[in-house]
Amino acid sequence: MHVQSEWFNLFAWVCPPLARVCARWFSLEREIRWVPADGDGSFSEEDWASLRYVGRPAILLRTELVHLLAPPLLFFRLTLCIRAGRYGQPSPLSIDLPRSREPLAIVVFRTGTRGDDALIFPDLNAEPGTAADDDELLLP
């Protein structure tokens, strides 16, 4: 549940119709479509579930998804990946969610599975302005 600030509550009391429009417009609530991947990293397009999420912290999203999985896992046993489009490659989510309210597609991998091991993580320690050789990016 999202708690509004005192200023917003005052605004809602003074002008309820406009406050409802502003709350919908300025809210960070978004739809998160998510699907658990199996041990090989594959998932079915028919198995997507949906939830409403408020905020940007990926760590809180992970906590919510832990409770929705059956059977539930420990918090640190999951890797969240964001998928861009229907045919996009899942990319590990290593920072907070973007500020937009657009729906996000999240694929949930269990840590230690072959699917999780096959993920390509960004090099956070790379020097700015350097790029990997094109040969390194090609898959066998």
Quick structural gist:
With 140 residues, this protein is of the alpha+beta class.
What is the name of the CATH class of the domain at 28-124? Alpha Beta
Level of helix content?
Answer: 25-40%
Enumerate how many helices there are, as a single number: 5
| Mean pLDDT value | 76
| Overall 3D form | globular
CATH topology of the domain at 28-124: Ubiquitin-like (UB roll)
- The CATH homologous superfamily of the domain at 28-124 is termed Phosphatidylinositol 3-kinase Catalytic Subunit, Chain A, domain 1
Q: Alpha-carbon distance between the termini? A: 46 Å
Major pleated sheet: 5 strands, mixed
β content, as a range? 15-25%
Task: Note down, in words, how this protein is organized.
There is one protein chain. By secondary structure, the protein is α+β, with helices and mostly antiparallel strands. The chain contains five helices and five strands. The chain has helices at residues 6-14, 16-26, 58-68, 114-117, 134-137; strands at 29-36, 49-54, 78-83, 91-92, 104-110. A hairpin with a 7-residue loop joins strand 3 (78-83) and strand 4 (91-92). Helix 1 crosses helix 2. The longest helix has 11 residues, at 16-26. The protein is globular, with a radius of gyration of 19 Å. It starts with 5 loop residues before the first helix and ends with a helix. The mean pLDDT is 76. Pfam families: Ubiq_DUF_assoc. InterPro entries: Ubiq_DUF569-assoc. Residues 29-109 form the DUF569 domain. This is DUF569 domain-containing protein.
